[in-house]
Automatic annotation (TrEMBL):
It comes from Heyndrickxia oleronia. The chain crosses the membrane at residues 60-82. This is Formamidopyrimidine-DNA glycosylase. InterPro entries: FPG_cat (IPR012319), FPG_N (IPR035937), H2TH_FPG (IPR015886), Ribosomal_uS13-like_H2TH (IPR010979), Znf_DNA_glyclase/AP_lyase (IPR000214), Znf_FPG/IleRS (IPR010663). Its cofactor is Zn(2+). Signal peptide: none annotated. The keyword Cell membrane does not apply. Belongs to the FPG family. Residues 2-112 form the Formamidopyrimidine-DNA glycosylase catalytic domain.
Length: 269
């Protein structure tokens, strides 16, 4: 599932490709992916210009010039591709937004969605999200205070969107590995040193993942050399049976709260 770095990468590339451009055509192949009648959806966004794109957690928000906002959540298996009809992937397209001869294809929206709201209803439409870990106000003192009286296992809390926005399976594992903390540790068990290291690892891993385009390897456009660059930099995620780069022990996989979790049992404590 796309997480904060993947959605931040999409945001950057979408700014380059569609901000300032007008939606010239809409094709809806799966009505369940939107939240209103197709004719109303098309009426509200056709010939509207995209003026801004924001990210909140794992959501992208497309602001249109007429005051409408498209809220995207790709969920499990969702991704996007931008290009001409000749370049589009040989995959089922749930929604297509056209910008002249180029199109933005929404793929794999079996669980994901592209919902339309008036701008004054956006906050109500989004789920109750926790703090953004890369927000300017997300400082170490804030984080230490925020953890006060919080309870639960580290893995479970890191992927809880009400606890922190945007972190999922991949980056929770990479953060725990970098911090040398077992994902089974509980928040109440963490020392002040552990909490400081956890904060620094959150910042470093997320920023590095954004720098390298996240871990998902679906190209966003023809000749895209950014998207997916973090995949071969993952130290534990999806590396079961491989040797830990830090200590040489075998990386293991364990189910925690019904989620696959990868870690080194020797150098994570």
């Amino acid at each position: 599932m796309p997480e904060l770095p993947e959605m931040e990468t999409y945001k950057k590339l979408l700014y380059e490709k569609i901000v300032g451009k007008t939606i010239t055509n809409i094709i809806i192949n799966r009505e369940k992916s939107i939240n209103c009648r197709p004719d109303m959806f098309i009426k509200d966004i056709l010939l509207q210009k995209v003026i801004r794109i924001d990210r909140r957690g794992k959501h992208l928000l497309f602001y249109l010039v007429n005051g409408r906002v498209l809220i995207l959540h790709l969920m499990l298996g969702g991704w996007m591709y931008y290009g001409t009809e000749e370049e589009k992937p040989n995959r089922t397209i749930q929604i297509q937004l056209s910008f002249g001869i180029e199109n933005l294809y929404f793929i794999g929206l079996r669980l994901g969605y592209l919902h339309l709201y008036p701008i004054n209803e956006v906050d109500e439409a989004l789920p109750n999200l926790g703090p953004e870990p890369l927000d300017i106000n997300f400082t170490l003192p804030f984080f230490i205070n925020y953890l006060h009286k919080k309870r639960g296992r580290l893995k479970t809390k890191l992927i809880d969107q009400k606890f922190l926005s945007g972190i999922g399976n991949c980056y929770s594992d990479e953060i725990c590995y970098h911090a040398q903390l077992l994902p089974t540790r509980t928040l109440e068990d963490l020392t002040d040193i552990d909490k400081k290291q956890l904060y620094e690892s959150i910042q470093l891993i997320l920023r590095k993942a954004i720098q390298y385009g996240g871990y998902m390897n679906h190209a966003f456009y023809h000749d895209d050399r950014l998207t997916g660059g973090f995949d071969n930099k993952c130290k534990v995620y999806d590396r079961e049976g491989e040797l830990c780069e830090r200590c040489g022990s075998e990386i293991i996989k364990k189910m925690i709260s019904s989620r696959k979790t990868f870690y080194c049992p020797h150098c994570q404590f």
